[in-house]
From TrEMBL:
One Pfam family matching this protein: LytR_cpsA_psr
Gene Ontology biological process terms, A to Z: cell wall organization
Transmembrane segments: 12-35
The organism of origin for this protein: Lysinibacillus fusiformis
Membrane listed as a keyword: yes
Annotated keywords: Membrane, Signal-anchor, Transmembrane, Transmembrane helix
Positions of the Cell envelope-related transcriptional attenuator domain: 87-228
Name of this protein: Transcriptional attenuator, LytR family
Length: 305
């Protein structure tokens, strides 16, 4: 059994936080006459799961919110490029419990070996998106953690570039110089645009810390985006930002649900417990996987629910 510990490395989570923050801010600006515009944008990105089309399920979701039942969200960062079906780059499950006033967050390593319902066999969890899109990924995560996923939010990583440009670029402090895909980023403090920022947060192989170093840079850039995105100078650009979100975000959350959840569950955002999935690397049939044993999975499931 592997011990769970606090995880300080932030990944695509903050992109999702930015998205939610923007929508919550926009939803609260009804007096400024933009509610209808925001509602139209949210309708545009609304993509229900098959189970959401069931009227009984819709009523159950509504009842759960009204009764302050714990809710689970799958935050999905997807790397989609031209002529590529795409794979999930980051998967984070967040459960929000308004009664305990605690939110619990766990990141699933993309090489984790899981049962893939769409493929009817075992594979890396990030391959679930290639076989079944969001629907397949939700099912794989539910099977792996043995918990229901109520809502998902998917962000296309390519849209990261446009979000940085929409807020006028960000200032970063690069720890060491490196080059990625013909883009050279020198050491030191500097202002970067969206194109450079995308390379900055994607580089992994040249970093001595590997993926952990990449996550640190992602945390840095996203924190800067949030700072600039909440400034009034950025809020007045809301039509442009909404268009970017329309192109790069997909969710089964409706605007009224976003508002109801924000009002009823905001107390649970005061304490965010972050846990890390512990496992070990193992090669099976020539493929390297991250293996999580059943005891660890049970512990995580209990923590989340």
């Amino acid at each position: 059994m592997y011990k769970l510990k606090e995880k300080k490395k932030l990944n695509i989570r903050k992109i999702i936080i930015l998205v939610l923050t923007l929508f919550i801010i926009f939803a609260g600006l009804v007096s400024y006459g933009i509610y209808r515009t925001v509602a139209q944008s949210v309708d545009h990105i609304y993509k229900p799961l098959n189970k959401d089309k069931d009227n009984d399920k819709q009523q159950q979701n509504k009842t759960n919110i009204e009764n302050l039942k714990p809710l689970s969200f799958l935050l999905l960062g997807v790397d989609e490029r031209p002529n590529d079906v795409g794979r999930s780059d980051s998967m984070i499950v967040v459960t929000v419990n308004p009664k305990s006033e605690i939110s619990t967050m766990v990141s699933i390593p993309r090489d984790t070996r899981v049962y893939n319902p769409m493929k009817n066999s075992y594979s890396k969890i990030n391959a679930a998106y290639a076989y079944g899109g969001v629907e397949g990924t939700v099912q794989a995560v539910e099977q792996f953690l043995n918990i229901p996923i109520d809502y998902y939010i998917k962000v296309n990583m390519e849209g990261f570039r446009d979000i940085v440009d929409a807020v006028g670029g960000v200032t970063v402090n690069n720890k060491f110089a490196f080059t990625l895909e013909d883009v050279f980023i020198p050491e030191g403090k500097q202002q970067i645009n969206g194109h450079v920022a995308l390379k900055y947060v994607r580089m992994r192989k040249e970093d001595p810390l590997g993926d952990f170093g990449r996550q640190t840079r992602q945390r840095e850039v996203i924190s800067k985006i949030i700072e600039k995105g909440t400034e009034f100078s950025s809020l007045v650009k809301y039509p442009k930002i909404l268009k970017i979100l329309e192109k790069n975000v997909q969710t089964n959350l409706k605007l009224e649900q976003l508002i109801d959840i924000q009002k009823a569950y905001k107390s649970a955002a005061q304490i965010i417990k972050q846990i890390e999935i512990k496992g070990e690397g193992k090669t099976i049939d020539g493929i390297w996987y991250y293996i999580v044993n059943d005891d660890t999975r049970l512990e995580i499931s209990d923590e989340l629910m």
